[in-house]
């Protein structure tokens, strides 16, 4: 069991992928059953495992390729945090995507890569060694590309191209770093931190930088963020996946892994690379928000807000104080919930009302109350209004910053809060308080679209309200930090 | 002593061949140059094999094989040249047709 | 032993049969020959896996009088790869080069040439004698040239002739080296040469042989003959030429440098060879970027991909005692040979399908073909993953092993080559891919039989699977591996 | 899983009840009549306060561990707030027009109310912060409810400052909490003393609270928002909501800090400046708004001076100011001369109380406030009565000018009586609560010197009123500093800069280089060159090997 479970988790999305590719375009029922079935089973497994791991069980599966090339799947608390997020959101996104695409073209291709992408994310979460992390990291890149290019029109193909131009050099840097490190320390497992004594500090700093560049591309750290806003040319479910579940998260997750499982917090501080990383994250936070302010396309604005928000996670990791790390980890989940809500809603506005730009939102609150309510919750959460999810993360990050003796971070959080408000509140204002345009149409007769948004919005509220309960993401993040990375 | 003569002649042939192979444009000349080099090498080979006590049978075997190989190569080459001349009207490579 | 012999002679007989038999029986005979040879190579592989390297002294005569054949892990592995490619090519050619489609000349000529090539390749994989290697190499060259010219088009003939010109020059250089070696040591058997006492003439001999082999391997700057030749040939032939032919001369290089004359390897020469390889990676990549025809892109990518393999000289070479990384580098290089063989064959066969479908391989005409021929598009994409060296493909395994060796041996600069080369490959493969996967279809393609479409897909999938299951091949390659590869020269 | 809660659920229920009512308008059918519920929303809180705010509760799983409970001063303000909201809610239920917009208004009304009650009930900073955010941000829709240009402009200024305040407050709280390693309000407050960057933290807190409490110069939103909101909204804004900022300062700003003196200075500045500036207003609601700024200034002075009577004084001001705003509303609805006289009468009475006429609740409030603060300050407070009388007198004049409404409104009388109750309570309640709230016997009120201190400023003020009635006052629109500092025009809508979407970059030079490569390739193709290079290479390799061995 202990070895088969990780495999099962992987299979729940790999098998649907493999089968879906060869399904006929019009065999909708079978395809949807496969997708939903896989998602549900995976979620079940995850829930089961949550309890098992909470009682101290560990799961591990190992496949040696060539010497030094070992795929190691291992389930620890951190992996579980990420995997439960992606598992839950995958189910919702699948429901949403099925409703979104209806009977459009090329669905077998889409859903094939869609589940492949999730398989990659699962593998990423379960990776117990650097090299397996890299392998799934690459698989993720490859499986996402067709999703971005799915529409196959000029903008989306261009977006896909941009995506590759950023992603591949990034992975080259990552591979370089991994091999450089492992040539001195041997294969790196996340269970025991490698012995870095073999490398001089300069080399270690360089390796760290390479690592951060490698995962930073996916985490959309400024200045490596260019692909993310471009990628909003993809269909809404993909954006949701990209921004909340898979790609960007994978990057942030990678940063956490590298900081805490490869280098270790104290080494990072000793090398003096923590503060620079924190600065990069801060710059990203502010710059992303600032650019978001300038966008008048809803999805573009959301994309830039992702750029900014994901760096909270990086910031939390970089500050390397327990509270900050809890904040970062919990934001991994919280940002996912909030951003996926926003993208779901953006997709609904686009799909049901043809709204792409913010002017279109005027007065939509009355027209599409549920969507608009969910959107508002997500937006307010992003701003960090209590008692929503975003507030919890921000609060812990702030405390952590003080704990780490980096009060300037408070200024960053302050600025980001104000900027977030500046680019989200006008949207809410338009939604609820401005008169509707005469030709405004739009309805919410697609429950498959609205329901997931409602669920995630409710979750955004719930994780904030019940933050202190042990089963909340915050509780789990606290568990991780106290177990694994406690000082 | 005569061995050295053979060896030197072989070397000379090779030299001549190399010059022809590089300097000449017409493909037939190049093929002949190739055969020249081949013969030179075989001559040298034979000389090398004939040293020491008694005769070493191996070089002879090898040389015969080599000659066969060279022959078939030349045959193929000539065939191609003919085909080239038929299709393009010249027995020179496209990019060199200009220079003599 | 029987396995080895039958593995050598079966394709030869099949070739003769394909020539001799009347046209009706030709194709069945050829396919039968292919089938039997595959069986033989599997058999041989199992034998090698069970009992280690298989050595045969022909007619019971031992070297230096007799001729020895030896199937070690390396040779057998290449043999298996060759068998796979041959089967795929045969299956594709059944559709593409049927006499009524491609004309009588190709219909007649292709099968014997292919089988002859196969026999020659197998001979080279197991030969232990420099002169036998020469003969095998010549046989390969001649069949390859014939395959290039087989279509009879003017461009093809010119390309073939240029190929022949370069190739013959190469063989002469090699032959000269062989002669000098024999003159100095009175033997050409690799194992005996390894035990020889170094003579002053060896340097020149080695230099001549190496240079000759470099031309045949189409290493920069002697690659120029390859792209026109490979793109002029019909697709299945191109697959053979690109996937297999250069590997033979490359193998001989490895045999000479790692087995026959390891003690002559010096950092300077090694890095000279590796630098040429690095240049090849860059040069081939850039030129592939500039091509507008699919087959030319693929051909230039061959130039680039072969460049990686030359990193083996400084990485697995280098004086010094037992070096743990050497095995990694050596195996990595061979993985690259295998991965490239499979992937490149898949690519050329895919190109063949596209040409058969729309009668052109210009990128402009290929827009949106993925819609009509999804499997082929998928195959091309998979093969690209291998060439990019992305996990979990075998290309990645090779890249990883080489880069690790580079860092471990403190020559990290060499690691830049695979890293950068991967990006370059991404750049030049992105263009055909984005063309194939574009939405608007330029031409309405002719229907392609399903069986034909699966062929490249399977090959490409194999090139990825080789990476996923690389532990067994890794073991296999260590069988009968030269000590020098284990411990460094 | 720990136990769900410990303590009595009463405070929690008090808080939840308005939130539940706030959900009612979600049902479309009920939306139209949601306003009817408003007066009932604060009732549990009112009862809770009257019962002496018994019991406290801890709910560990909620948020970051919710703790609710009151202290004497917060209990006072809790009751006042509940009372104000009840009456204002009644007024809104009677007067405001029903409809879709009303539903939205009702929801936010309840949310704001919950927040307003929450700031007095919260015992941990997270709950407090959440309540504070609710009371600031949820009040925004009430400000812009009428959608007039002025309302939208005011709303824009309001929300901007509110968000800035939130951010500042959050940062301040974080600094404190990080030092305290605990979320209890009292602990956090104590921790500021020797927290790293504690002073900055306190400064941020004061900024955050100051915005809400209308502290000069952060008050700029107040004279814009209070008049713009519907009457009921203005009543709660001026009466109850501003007190959230005040209680924040009381609860979280530690005694020993340099900021205190700044509080006093700014307070006095507001107390006198705002009152004077109020004379430049024509709209009675605007005048009242400025008087609120000045009264809050006084209260801030008390906070700065560490007076015990802050809550007590605030209680009176809340009731009175709410009553005054409602009077404006009654005036707008009044039709007969009798009604108008009645309104002016009530307003005058309450105004005098605010000014501190002896024996009124206001006088008691001032006396209680002056207890235990320095001579100079108490003198200043006494003096402030003059300006207060002046500005409120001016208010009465403007009130008289409010044009009557043509048609009769139903049950005006009933409505007025409710407002009257509120006003009267403003006069009476301080008498009732004195024993509990102030620790000197009530006879202190009758002390002649105190009577005198209360009387003469009022008389002086009345004289001044008589004076200003004569001379022509300049008339400015509300929003003093905003206009002073070149904030040329107040825009109603948010207009954001829209960035360019990235210009295309051309890569021609790279192309030219690549073409050169192609030429080079052609040169390599040339056999004589290639062949000789080949021979050369052979020899070079040989040479390499030769050299090495």
Structure write-up:
The complex is a heterotetramer of chains A (487), B (100), C (489) and D (549). With 487 residues, chain A is mainly alpha-helical. Chain A folds into two domains: 1-270, no CATH class; 273-487, no CATH class. Chain A is built from 20 helices and two strands. The mean pLDDT of chain B is 86. Helices cover 77% and strands 0% of the residues of chain B. The longest helix of chain B has 32 residues, at 57-88. Chain B is built from three helices and no strands. The radius of gyration of chain B is 17 Å and the shape is elongated. With 489 residues, chain C is mainly alpha-helical. Chain C has a domain at 265-489. In chain C, 76% of the residues lie in helices and 2% in strands. Chain C has helices at residues 2-20, 23-51, 73-96, 99-102, 104-126, 130-149, 154-185, 190-194, 202-217, 226-232, 235-243, 245-260, 267-290, 294-309, 312-316, 324-358, 369-372, 374-388, 394-408, 416-436, 450-468, 471-477, 483-487; strands spanning 54-57, 68-71. In chain C, strands 1-2 form a two-stranded antiparallel sheet. The longest helix of chain C has 35 residues, at 324-358. Chain C is globular, with a radius of gyration of 21 Å. Chain D folds into two domains: 7-257, no CATH class; 258-490, no CATH class. Chain D is built from 23 helices and three strands. Chain D has helices at 10-23, 28-31, 43-50, 72-95, 100-121, 125-137, 139-143, 149-180, 185-191, 198-213, 221-228, 231-252, 259-278, 284-305, 310-333, 337-355, 361-370, 375-401, 412-437, 448-470, 480-484, 508-525, 527-548, and strands at 6-7, 57-59, 66-68.
């Amino acid at each position: 069991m202990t070895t088969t479970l990780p495999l099962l988790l992987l299979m729940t999305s790999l098998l649907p992928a493999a089968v879906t590719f060869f399904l006929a375009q019009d065999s909708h029922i079978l395809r949807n059953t496969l997708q939903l079935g896989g998602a549900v089973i995976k979620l079940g497994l995850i829930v089961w495992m949550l309890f098992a791991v909470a009682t101290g069980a560990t799961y591990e599966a190992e496949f040696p390729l060539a010497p030094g090339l070992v795929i190691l799947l291992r389930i620890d608390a951190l992996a579980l945090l990420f995997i439960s997020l992606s598992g839950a959101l995958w189910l919702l996104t699948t429901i949403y995507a099925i409703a979104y695409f209806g009977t459009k073209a090329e669905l077998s291709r889409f859903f094939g890569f869609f589940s492949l992408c999730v398989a990659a994310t699962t593998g990423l979460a379960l990776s117990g060694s650097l090299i397996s992390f890299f392998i799934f990291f690459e698989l993720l890149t490859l499986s996402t590309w067709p999703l971005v290019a799915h529409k196959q029109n000029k903008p989306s193909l261009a977006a896909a191209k941009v995506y590759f131009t950023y992603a591949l050099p990034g992975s080259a840097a990552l591979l370089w770093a991994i091999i450089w490190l492992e040539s001195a320390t041997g294969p790196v497992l996340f269970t025991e931190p490698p012995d870095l004594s073999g490398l001089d500090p300069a080399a270690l700093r360089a390796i760290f930088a390479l690592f951060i560049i490698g995962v930073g591309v996916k985490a959309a750290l400024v200045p490596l963020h260019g692909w993310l806003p471009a990628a909003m040319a993809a269909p809404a479910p993909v954006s949701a996946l990209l921004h909340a579940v898979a790609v960007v998260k994978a990057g942030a997750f990678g940063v956490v892994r590298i900081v805490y499982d490869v280098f270790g917090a104290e080494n990072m501080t000793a090398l003096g690379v923590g503060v620079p990383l924190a600065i990069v994250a801060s710059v990203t936070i502010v710059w992303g928000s600032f650019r978001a302010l300038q966008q008048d396309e809803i999805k573009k604005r959301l994309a830039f807000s992702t750029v900014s928000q994901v760096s909270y996670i990086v910031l939390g990791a970089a500050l390397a104080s327990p509270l900050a790390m809890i904040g970062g980890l919990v934001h991994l989940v919280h940002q996912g919930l909030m951003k996926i809500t926003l993208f779901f809603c953006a997709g609904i506005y686009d799909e049901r009302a043809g709204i792409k730009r913010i002017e279109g939102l005027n007065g939509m609150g009355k027209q599409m109350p549920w969507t608009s309510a969910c959107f508002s919750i997500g937006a307010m959460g992003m701003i960090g209004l209590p008692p929503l999810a975003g507030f919890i993360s921000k609060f812990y990050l702030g405390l952590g910053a003080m704990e780490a003796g980096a009060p300037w971070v408070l200024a960053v959080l302050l600025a980001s809060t104000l900027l977030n408000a500046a680019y989200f509140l006008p949207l809410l204002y338009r939604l609820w308080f401005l008169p509707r345009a005469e030709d405004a149409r739009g309805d919410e007769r697609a429950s498959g679209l609205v329901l997931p948004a409602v669920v995630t919005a409710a979750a955004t509220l719930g994780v904030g309200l019940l933050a202190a309960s042990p089963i909340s993401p915050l509780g789990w993040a606290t568990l991780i930090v106290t177990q694994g990375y406690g000082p | 002593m005569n061995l050295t003569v053979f060896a030197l002649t072989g070397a000379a042939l090779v030299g001549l061949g190399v010059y022809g192979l590089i300097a000449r444009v017409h493909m037939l000349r190049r093929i002949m140059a190739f055969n020249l080099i081949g013969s030179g090498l075989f001559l040298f080979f034979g000389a090398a094999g004939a040293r020491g006590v008694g005769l070493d049978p191996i070089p002879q075997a090898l040389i015969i094989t080599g000659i066969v190989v060279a022959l078939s190569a030349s045959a193929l080459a000539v065939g191609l040249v003919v085909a080239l001349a038929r299709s393009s009207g010249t027995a020179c490579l496209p990019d060199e047709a200009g220079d003599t | 032993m029987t396995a080895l012999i039958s593995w050598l002679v079966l394709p030869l007989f099949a070739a003769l049969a394909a020539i001799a038999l009347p046209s009706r029986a030709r194709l069945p005979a050829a396919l039968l020959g292919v089938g039997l040879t595959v069986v033989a190579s599997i058999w041989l592989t199992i034998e090698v896996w069970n009992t280690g390297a298989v050595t045969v002294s022909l007619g019971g005569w031992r070297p230096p009088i007799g001729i020895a054949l030896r199937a070690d892990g390396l040779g057998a592995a290449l043999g298996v790869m060759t068998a796979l490619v041959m089967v795929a090519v045969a299956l594709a050619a059944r559709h593409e080069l049927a006499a009524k489609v491609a004309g009588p000349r190709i219909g007649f000529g292709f099968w014997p040439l292919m089988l002859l090539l196969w026999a020659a390749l197998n001979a080279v994989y197991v030969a232990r004698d420099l002169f036998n290697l020469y003969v095998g190499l010549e046989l390969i060259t001649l069949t390859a040239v014939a395959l290039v010219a087989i279509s009879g088009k003017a461009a093809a003939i010119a390309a073939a002739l240029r190929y022949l010109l370069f190739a013959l020059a190469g063989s002469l250089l090699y032959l000269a080296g062989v002669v000098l070696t024999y003159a100095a040591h009175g033997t050409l058997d690799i194992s005996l040469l390894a035990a020889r006492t170094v003579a002053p003439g060896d340097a020149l001999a080695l230099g001549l042989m190496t240079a000759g082999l470099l031309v045949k391997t189409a290493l920069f700057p002697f690659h120029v003959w390859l792209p026109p030749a490979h793109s002029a040939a019909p697709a299945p032939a191109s697959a053979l030429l690109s996937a297999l032919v250069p590997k033979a001369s490359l193998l001989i290089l490895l045999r000479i440098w790692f087995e026959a004359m390891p003690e002559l390897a010096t950092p300077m020469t090694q890095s000279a060879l590796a630098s040429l390889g690095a240049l090849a990676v860059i040069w081939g990549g850039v030129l592939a970027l500039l091509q507008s025809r699919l087959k030319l892109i693929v051909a230039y990518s061959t130039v680039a991909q072969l460049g990686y393999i030359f990193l083996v000289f400084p990485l697995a070479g280098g004086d010094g005692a037992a070096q743990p990384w050497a095995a990694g580098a050596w195996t990595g290089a061979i993985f690259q040979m295998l991965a490239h063989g499979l992937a490149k064959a898949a690519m050329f066969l895919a190109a063949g399908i596209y040409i058969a479908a729309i009668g052109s391989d210009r990128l402009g005409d290929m827009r949106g073909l993925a819609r009509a021929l999804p499997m082929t598009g998928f195959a091309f994409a998979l093969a690209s993953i291998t060439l990019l060296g992305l996990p979990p493909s075998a290309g990645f395994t090779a890249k990883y092993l080489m880069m690790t060796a580079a860092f471990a041996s403190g020559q990290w600069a060499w690691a830049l080559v695979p890293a950068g080369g991967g990006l370059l490959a991404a750049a030049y493969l992105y263009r055909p891919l984005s063309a194939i996967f574009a939405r608007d279809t330029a031409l309405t393609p002719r229907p392609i039989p399903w069986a034909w479409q699966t062929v490249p897909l399977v090959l490409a999938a194999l090139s990825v699977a080789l990476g996923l299951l690389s532990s067994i091949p890794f073991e296999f390659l260590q069988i009968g591996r030269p000590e020098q590869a284990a411990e460094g020269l | 899983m720990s136990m769900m809660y410990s303590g009595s659920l009463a405070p929690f229920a008090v808080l939840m009840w308005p939130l539940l009512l706030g959900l009612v308008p979600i049902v479309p059918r009920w939306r139209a009549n949601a306003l009817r519920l408003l007066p009932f929303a604060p009732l549990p809180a009112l009862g809770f306060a009257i019962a002496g705010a018994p019991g406290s509760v801890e709910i560990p799983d909620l948020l970051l561990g919710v703790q609710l409970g009151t202290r004497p001063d917060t209990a006072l303000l809790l009751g006042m707030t509940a009372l104000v909201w009840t009456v204002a809610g009644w007024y809104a239920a009677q007067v405001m027009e029903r409809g879709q917009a009303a539903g939205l208004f009702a929801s936010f009304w309840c949310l704001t109310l919950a927040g307003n009650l929450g700031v007095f009930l919260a015992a941990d900073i997270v709950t407090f912060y959440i309540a504070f955010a609710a009371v600031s941000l949820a009040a925004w829709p009430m400000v812009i409810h009428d959608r007039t240009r002025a309302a939208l402009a005011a709303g824009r200024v309001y929300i901007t400052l509110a968000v800035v305040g939130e951010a500042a407050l959050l940062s301040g709280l974080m600094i404190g909490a990080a030092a305290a390693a605990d979320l209890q309000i009292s602990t956090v407050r104590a921790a500021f003393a020797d927290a790293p960057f504690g002073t900055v933290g306190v400064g941020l807190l004061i900024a955050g609270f100051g915005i809400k409490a209308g502290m000069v110069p952060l008050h700029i939103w107040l004279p814009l928002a209070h008049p713009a909101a519907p009457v009921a909204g203005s009543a709660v804004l001026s009466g109850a909501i501003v007190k959230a900022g005040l209680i924040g300062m009381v609860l979280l700003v530690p005694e020993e800090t340099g900021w205190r003196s700044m509080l006093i200075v700014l307070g006095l500045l507001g107390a006198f400046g705002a009152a004077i500036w109020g004379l430049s207003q024509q709209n009675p609601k605007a005048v009242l708004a400025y008087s609120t700024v000045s009264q809050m200034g006084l209260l801030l002075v008390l906070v700065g001076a560490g007076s015990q009577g802050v809550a007590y004084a605030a209680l009176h001001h809340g009731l009175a100011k709410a009553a005054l705003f409602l009077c404006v509303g009654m005036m707008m609805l009044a039709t007969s001369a009798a009604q108008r006289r009645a309104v002016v009468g009530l307003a005058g009475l309450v105004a005098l109380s605010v000014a501190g006429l002896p024996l009124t609740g206001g006088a008691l409030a001032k006396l209680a406030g002056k207890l235990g603060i320095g001579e100079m300050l108490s003198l200043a407070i006494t003096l402030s009565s003059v300006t207060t009388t002046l500005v409120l007198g001016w208010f009465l004049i403007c009130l008289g000018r409010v044009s009557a409404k043509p048609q009769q409104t139903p049950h005006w009388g009933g409505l007025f009586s409710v407002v009257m109750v509120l006003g009267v309570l403003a006069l009476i309640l301080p008498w009732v609560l004195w024993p509990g709230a102030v620790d000197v016997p009530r006879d202190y009120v009758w002390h002649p010197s105190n009577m005198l201190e209360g009387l003469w400023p009022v008389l002086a003020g009345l004289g001044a009123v008589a004076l200003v009635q004569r001379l022509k006052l300049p008339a400015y629109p509300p929003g003093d500093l905003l206009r002073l500092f070149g904030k040329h025009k107040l825009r109603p809508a948010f207009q954001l800069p829209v960035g360019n979407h990235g210009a295309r970059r051309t890569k021609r030079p790279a192309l030219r280089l690549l073409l050169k490569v192609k030429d080079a390739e052609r040169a390599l193709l040339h056999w004589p060159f290639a062949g000789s290079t080949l021979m050369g290479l052979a020899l070079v390799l040989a040479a390499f090997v030769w050299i090495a061995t």
